[in-house]
Design goal:
The chain has 1099 residues and is mostly helical. It contains 48 helices and eleven strands. It binds zinc ion (2 copies). The site of one zinc ion has 6 residues, from loops. Keywords: Metal-binding, TPR repeat, Zinc, Zinc-finger.
């Protein structure tokens, strides 16, 4: 005990105090259970637990996000096993019955408030970095905690006893020496059995040891800990063949291992191993966040324990990969050398044969580089090489030993994962640090980046962000990311952008975040492209938002691809708003934010009902008796559903006849109102699917083409049960409609599914065909109206359709208020802001009135259209002073990392180019690359459209035929071999490099000195955005000299400031007497950020 420092003991004392609260919370849960369930008693039985899970939790209005483990522990019913997370989830979220009186509600509210405070402190402790707390903080937290516990009914003086160090000592239990001896013997027998892989025997022996009375807690903690480890071993032995990741019930060995580990921890809270075991089980359950928390506690108690450190590093690394969704990143997909070369060919026009020839050549000049190539070939396989990690690691190591950064980085990567070499995070760290210390430019081919340096720096950033092997340190992470960004890393630019976006580790800076996202995206990072698209959406830059979204999809971003229909939907919503509002008002309207928040959650305007309601038959029946048609319908449907479920629950095996009746009842329920059919639990769902499959099969065998009631019923059931597979079901429904052209229900389903697929024209078609069967079928009238509104062609037509629905639907139908809200939105789009005062407000009011007659089960009423209109009203009522026009500061661009990079590179190149020109070998390799396609001037200028740099995709090599790009030259140029290098800026103040080839012979000097001077303006016809020049970065390439049309001299910017581009700059650099600046500030930026010194001395 003495080895644990005071501050660490403080931490664990608070932990114990929180644990102590569980006793009270369990009691609280039981009280509430009785209160909410007409006095029923919670008896800690599995029956009680299972019923609660399937009847109460599954139907709860508020969604309870219980993990599989938590669900299992609830299902077991034994509330003594529940931890604070589970208990507070249940206590805070379970719906309260409507029958409570004011005093009861007040008491519950009060308890909830305390519970929330308790949870807050618990979270604070759980995320406490060092797990050690000084006396000041300890006393403060202790007071806060004990105040809460006393309010829950604990006695102050009892709690104070826990403050004493003696809580960690042996409790004054009476010891039975005989039993202790016996228990220890059983434990060593069990351990032997474990060694012999007889895990079941070992568990039996441990169990015997645990139950013996009079054995010290610490000994029992050891037995429990051992047993937990044995259970995991047993699980692994048994599960080799199966792929069952999720825990299903409390017999699962992993669940029991967790319970045992927690018991060990409870019996001896300051023993590292208890925490370690808990962590180990969580890693097996793939819950790495929880594992990390447990390992951190263990490490606090035994700071030099390597076993814990290793497990912690491992979990942090896996958790990091999960958070980053690496499995979805197209760049991390393993590719063979051939695939890689083909991809390069597609993207940049490099000939694979030439690259392979180059590999052979490299052997002569750069043997270490050649080893890296071999390593890559072995890692993923190649035409003549079989995939082999050991060989790969060997070649990377060979390259690394010669000082090759790429070799070091790749060896680190393999070492981190234990591929071909032993897994060793520490050694990997050393390799990364060594790689990061190499020069950023390739030591032989100076124009190339030294591969491996930026990659290693990025990996170091990740390590510090996650705390793998090193101490977690966000400032250090930002430092390494920044270095990697400077050396060309796209991923680091993205990660650093996110830090600026959220203000983690650095001061929050949205402008900087956006610049970094731009940089990362133009370097090809698919995640940055998606984030940027969302960000631009929020700034109403819809055109660029769409551009970047498309680019994200093209670069293989799976999340972007999946959410594409929703993104387009959101864009439409925003576009409609942009069309309706003056720009200053747009800034304060929430719907824009909502519209792309919905992007992330996957909500759409035409969203599926996700069954958030509970349908209480008795309550509904009451309404029905008082004349509610909707309630009557729901009751009818519920009756059929109950009939169906009765058949299933009455006996284990049911006959074919019973199956047929079941299908009929279920289909009846679906026909009347499918939303009430809430199938309790996955197991029940599986059972129902099996029955439906069997009945369907029998129908098919008996009578392939004969239509029958049973056949129609089973088709309905099948469609509804698999409705989430839209594409499949829409085809299925197609054949149903053919077979049963008089069954309106298939048309209703088909109309809905087409709506979810955003195929609104098909929805309208389905609706119209169905309405021929029954023109007053209001479900179809409603689908038609929604589809017409989303089709966006004629708002008046949509309004008319809503009116048709409202004319026949019952007044308390759940879609009546939404119809009014949607109509109000339609009117808003027709009349724009003018409508807000009159017709929009009037219809909005009708919607509010309609809400008042809604059944309780559909309240609170949710409607996206309502949210949208509400915030329009709010924004309009704001005083003008609060509406600020967006800020536009062109000076911001001066610190744009892409601009800095472009200008720096240009100047560096100018400074070094004389050296390159005099070195023939280097010129051979670093010289010009053939273009993938050739840029040519258009035959005529007529019909050319303007294009800006940001509209040209920086990740794709492409000639923009039929476009013209207008730019200003912003840098001096001196050399013209092999091409003239310029830096240009367009009207949006975006800048880029431009390389001019095939200019007339002998005119280089004249062109650089007299024509392409700083401040000159030019138009480029059919501009070619070239990728994969020497440094694989984007640039504007001119192959056809006649595509350049210089503007007249009168357009030229005279005496342009080198830094900000303002005309008539008066200051002149005192050294070179050439560079002009408008202010001292501009000169400083030019010197510091853009490295003026590279060109200062040149004449
Ligand atoms: Zn200036
Ligand atoms: Zn100068």
């Amino acid at each position: 005990m003495t080895s644990v420092s005071k501050n660490v003991r403080n931490y664990f004392k608070l932990d114990l105090l929180i644990d102590r609260s569980n006793l009270k919370l369990r009691q609280l849960f039981k009280n509430r259970y009785s209160l909410f369930n007409n006095g029923k008693v919670w008896d800690d039985s599995p029956t009680c637990g299972n019923n609660y899970l399937t009847n109460t939790i599954a139907h709860n209005k508020k969604k309870l996000n219980l993990t599989p483990v938590e669900k299992t522990s609830v299902a077991s019913g034994d509330s003594n096993e529940w931890d604070l997370t589970t208990l507070s989830a249940l206590l805070l979220n379970i719906d309260r019955p409507k029958t409570l009186n004011t005093a009861q509600i007040e008491q519950l509210d009060n308890e909830d408030r305390l519970l929330n405070q308790l949870r807050e402190i618990r979270n604070k402790l759980a995320h406490h970095q060092k797990k050690s707390i000084d006396d000041v903080e300890f006393n403060q937290l202790w007071t806060e905690l004990s105040t809460i516990l006393v309010a829950f009914g604990y006695i102050d003086s009892e709690l104070d006893k826990l403050k004493d160090d003696s809580v960690f000592e042996f409790s004054s239990q009476s010891i039975n020496d005989e039993n202790v001896k016996e228990a220890k013997k059983l434990n060593s027998l069990a351990s032997q059995a474990h060694k012999n892989l007889n895990f079941s025997d070992a568990i039996t022996l441990f169990t015997k040891a645990i139950v013996l009375a009079g054995v010290p807690d610490h000994d029992r903690a050891i037995f429990y800990s051992n047993m937990s480890s044995t259970r995991l071993a047993l699980y692994e032995q048994e599960s080799e063949s199966s792929n069952n990741f999720e825990i299903e019930d409390s017999t699962d060995q992993r669940y029991r291992a967790l319970c045992d580990a927690k018991k060990a921890r409870a019996l001896w809270p300051t023993w590292w191993k208890g925490h370690f075991r808990v962590g180990k089980v969580y890693t097996v359950l793939n819950e790495h966040e929880k594992a990390i928390n447990s390992f951190e506690r263990a490490l606090t108690l035994d700071p030099i324990n390597n076993e814990i450190r290793k497990a912690l590093d491992e979990s942090r690394q896996i958790y990091g990969r999960q958070i980053r969704q690496e499995h979805l990143d197209p760049r991390l997909k393993p590719t063979t050398m051939s695939e890689h070369l083909n991809e390069m060919q597609q993207k940049m026009g490099t000939n694979p044969a030439h690259v392979r020839a180059g590999h052979a050549l490299i052997q002569e000049i750069d043997p270490a580089g050649a080893d890296v190539v071999k390593g890559h070939k072995y890692e993923h396989g190649d035409i003549d090489v079989k995939q082999d990690y050991e060989q790969a690691a060997k070649y990377f190591a060979k390259a690394a030993s010669q000082g090759n950064a790429e070799g070091m980085y790749n060896l680190a990567r393999l070492t981190d994962r234990g591929l071909g070499v032993e897994k060793d995070h520490n050694f990997a760290l050393k390799l990364l640090e060594e790689a990061a210390a190499q020069p950023p430019k390739h030591p032989i081919f100076n124009a190339f980046p030294n591969l491996g340096v930026a990659e290693a720096e990025h990996s170091l950033g990740l390590r510090y962000a996650e705390g793998v092997v090193v101490h977690k340190n966000l400032v250090a992470a930002a430092y390494w990311y920044e270095r990697a960004v400077d050396h060309g890393s796209a991923q680091s630019a993205n990660n650093l952008a996110l830090m600026y976006l959220h203000g983690t580790g650095v001061d929050k800076d949205l402008d900087k975040a956006e610049q970094l996202l731009q940089l990362s995206a133009r370097r090809g990072d698919p995640n940055a492209m998606l984030t940027l698209a969302t960000l631009l959406c929020g700034k109403n830059d819809l055109k660029m938002a769409k551009n970047w979204y498309d680019r994200a999809c093209e670069s293989g971003n799976i999340i972007a691809e999946i959410n594409r229909p929703m993104f387009e939907q959101a864009l439409q919503v925003i576009q409609k708003l942009v069309d309706c509002c003056p720009p200053n008002l747009l800034q304060v309207i929430n719907p824009i934010k909502n519209a792309f928040d919905s992007l992330q959650t996957g909500k759409t305007a035409y969203k599926r009902c996700d069954h958030p309601y509970i349908y209480d038959y008795n309550v509904l029946n009451g309404y029905a008796n008082r004349g509610s048609i909707t309630a009557k319908t729901l009751c009818d449907a519920l009756e059929h559903f109950a009939q169906a479920l009765n058949i299933l629950t009455q006996s284990e095996s049911i006959t074919e006849t019973q199956e047929n009746i079941f299908v009929h009842e279920l289909a009846e329920c679906y026909r009347i109102e499918h939303i009430v059919a809430q199938i309790p639990g996955v197991k029940m769902y599986k059972k129902i699917v099996e029955i439906v499959d069997r009945v369907l099969h029998r129908c098919n065998v008996e009578s392939t083409s004969v239509a029958s009631q049973l056949n129609e019923d089973v088709l309905i059931c099948y469609a509804l049960l698999h409705i989430d597979s839209y594409e499949l079901i829409i085809k299925f429904l197609g054949s149903c409609k053919q077979k049963y052209p008089k069954s309106i229900y298939f048309f209703r389903l088909s109309a809905s599914v087409n709506g979810w697929l955003h195929r609104y024209e098909d929805t309208v078609f389905d609706a119209n065909t169905g309405l021929e069967i029954d023109p007053n079928y209001y479900e179809l009238l409603y689908s038609k109206a929604v589809a017409l509104r989303l089709l966006d062609s004629d708002m008046n037509e949509a309004i008319e359709a809503y009116r048709a629905f409202l004319a026949v639907a019952p007044k308390d139908h759940r879609k009546v208020p939404e119809s009014y809200y949607a109509m109000a939105a339609c009117y808003f789009y027709i009349h724009k802001l003018d409508g807000l005062a009159g017709i929009v407000k009037k219809v909005y009011k009708q919607a509010e009135d309609a809400e008042k007659v809604q059944l309780l089960c559909f309240l609170p009423y949710e409607s996206d259209n309502k949210t949208l209109l509400k915030s329009m009203f709010d924004a309009q009522s704001l005083p003008d002073a609060e509406i600020v026009a967006p800020r536009r500061d062109h000076k911001l661009r001066l610190t744009n990392p892409h601009r800095i990079e472009v200008i720096k590179q240009h100047r560096e190149w100018e400074a070094k180019s004389s050296f390159v020109q005099n070195n023939a070998t280097l010129d051979l390799i670093s010289g010009s690359h053939q273009p993938r396609v050739r840029q040519q001037t258009a035959k005529s200028l007529i019909g050319l459209k303007a294009i800006s740099l940001k509209e040209m995709d920086p990740t794709t090599d492409h000639v923009y035929d039929g476009y013209v790009l207008s730019v200003t030259i912003i840098e001096q140029t001196y050399t013209w071999t092999p091409s003239i290098h310029l830096v240009i800026e367009d009207e949006n103040f975006d800048c880029e490099r431009m390389f001019i080839y095939s200019f007339p012979d002998g005119q280089g000097k004249y062109l650089t000195n007299k024509v392409f001077t700083i401040g000159s303006k030019m138009n480029i016809i059919n501009p070619y955005l070239r990728l994969g020049g020497t440094d694989m970065k984007s640039l504007v390439r001119i192959d056809d000299f006649s595509s350049i049309i210089m503007q007249s001299e009168s357009e030229q910017v005279l005496n342009m400031c080198r830094c900000c581009g303002e005309p008539n700059a008066l200051h002149v650099c005192s050294k070179c007497k050439q560079a002009r600046y408008c202010t001292k500030e501009c000169q400083t930026i030019d010197w510091q950020l853009y490295k003026h010194k590279f060109i200062c001395q040149r004449q």
